[in-house]
Design brief:
By secondary structure, the protein is an alpha+beta fold. The chain has 8 helices and 21 strands. Helices cover 20% and strands 30% of the residues.
């Protein structure tokens, strides 16, 4: 399936802090009183009727992480996506690590087929109508069996929520979901939440498809600019790349929780620059291609990457006032680029050869470019 087109800017005007909800109430208030209240109905079905119980759930519209936290307590593995920054502040740190701050369309496009038992969806009523069918077809592609969708329908309330683009009857939603390849599973045709199962067809859920991989990577959407890939989520620090680019393009990064490592690719979807003062949208690439990283492991809190030069038995830094030369156990002839991890809390260093070709900034070496190592290895320090 081709990646669906990106959400228009109007979507984010609707789906912004303090915009969604009845009257002038905030998103956070409505999530507690409306969205999470609907989740309690789902829990009853999950514990009493749902068989077999899902082992993995992806949530579109994770809000403050309450749904994911509850599912985790039941032994169900979860991931999610949430666009609104303010509501994520109420999320506990463990759950927050499993929520991508991005728009759901971009994340769904990047997920592999049949990777979650169930999708718990709360965004659909705010997505432009002409995108909905492709949106649910994409959900059908990634889900192994079930879709749970929380809706505000005409039967429940004749007045739409503020910013709600799709205020429909239960039957209208059921008709749309049928066109996307889902069938109503529990005959709840009027009030949310709705429970759907993938229709038997070209992508039939089988017993073997219930086997879940031990680990599925998080999909992070960011921007490749210069020599780094940056993310809107500050818990993921900039990733240094082995080659640099002029300008900025979208990037897709897969993060493995178990190994705490990254793989990076150019991204086919458009990405809006979230940085203050950068009011611009960057177009996706025609095809994905892998981006070689200079360092592919996640940094801990308090750690930062510093570029240096390994010369003789020392690694030296351009900012020699902040970082004095550090001594290495073995020496080299000549000079090579080095990548150093500095732990600000402990005041300690770890060093690696760098894959990047690096200009020699030392006095008397103007115009000299030092070749990066072909394969990265650790440099032992004294």
């Amino acid at each position: 399936m081709k990646p669906m087109k990106q959400l228009p800017s109007e979507y984010f005007q609707f789906y912004a802090d303090e915009q969604i909800g009845v009257s002038d109430r905030s998103y956070s208030s409505n999530w507690r009183d409306y969205g999470f209240a609907r989740f309690q109905d789902y829990l009853k079905v999950l514990t009493q009727t749902y068989a077999p119980k899902p082992t993995s759930v992806f949530e579109c519209g994770s809000a403050d992480g309450s749904v994911m936290r509850e599912l985790n307590s039941m032994g169900i593995r979860t991931r999610g996506v949430e666009f609104t920054k303010s509501i994520l502040k109420g999320c506990d740190s463990d759950t927050r690590k499993r929520i991508a701050r991005a728009n759901a369309v971009e994340v769904l496009n990047a997920l592999p087929d049949n990777c979650y038992d169930c999708v718990y969806e709360t965004c659909a009523q705010y997505i432009p109508r002409d995108m909905l069918l492709d949106y649910f077809k994409n959900i059908r592609r990634i889900v192994k069996r079930d879709l749970v969708i929380v809706l505000h329908t005409v039967e429940e309330d004749p007045e739409p929520h503020t910013g709600q683009l799709n205020h429909w009857s239960g039957q209208e939603w059921i008709k749309l979901l049928a066109a996307a390849g889902f069938e109503n599973a529990y005959n709840q045709d009027k009030c949310p939440p709705f429970y759907f199962r993938k229709s038997v067809g070209s992508t039939e859920a089988t017993a073997s498809s219930r086997v879940v991989a031990q680990s599925e990577p998080d999909v992070l959407i960011g921007l490749w600019t210069g020599w780094n890939i940056i993310f809107p989520d500050p818990s993921h620090k900039p990733l240094p790349t082995a080659t640099g680019i002029k300008g900025t393009i979208p990037a897709k990064v897969l993060y493995d929780d178990d190994t705490m490592t990254y793989r990076a690719f150019t991204h086919t979807g458009d990405v809006t620059d979230w940085r203050p003062g950068f009011n611009r949208r960057y177009g996706g690439r025609p095809e994905e291609s892998e981006i070689k990283l200079d360092y592919d492991k996640r940094l801990s809190d308090g750690e930062e990457l510093i570029n240096g030069l390994w010369s003789g038995k020392n690694i030296v830094f351009q900012d020699d006032k902040a970082h004095s030369p550090i001594e290495t156990k073995m020496g080299i002839r000549g000079t090579s680029p080095a990548l150093v991890i500095y732990n600000k809390t402990k005041g300690t260093y770890r060093a690696f050869t760098s894959l990047c070709d690096t200009p020699d900034w030392r006095d008397g070496h103007d115009g000299c470019v030092l070749k990066g190592d072909k394969q990265q290895h650790e440099i032992k320090l004294v």
